[in-house]
Design brief:
3 helices; Alpha-Beta Plaits; 2 domains; 35% strand; four-stranded antiparallel β-sheet; alpha+beta
Length: 135
Amino acid sequence: MKKQKVVLSFPPEKVEDPIIYHLIKDYDLMVSILRATIDPGKQGLMVVELSGANSQLSHGINYLESVGVGVEPLTQEIQHLEERCFSCTACVPICPTSALDVDRESWVVSFNPDKCVVCLSCVDVCVYNAVQSYL
């Protein structure tokens, strides 16, 4: 099974269509919605992780493009610079996916990039610049 994080851009006329349903039902993909901003009748933007067989992923992405949904790979990532981190834990409660967590015994902050949805909340709150975004 292959996983791929992508950014989906929905044009106004497609925002209310059951597109994610079709990815699941017709293409047998698992869809994890990591972040979404949907304005009915205006536009939609979703960061999703698609999981499935290589051929199903390819067919699913072709379907998205054929119905007018923009598909771009998620290229922006978060980097946790341990040498700058003082484990102040300011980033831990702000992280919606627990990608940043603290060990309750050692009080050391750790970062799991697989859980990260690149919401950038941690970047804004870190006064030590120990959390940065890059492309």
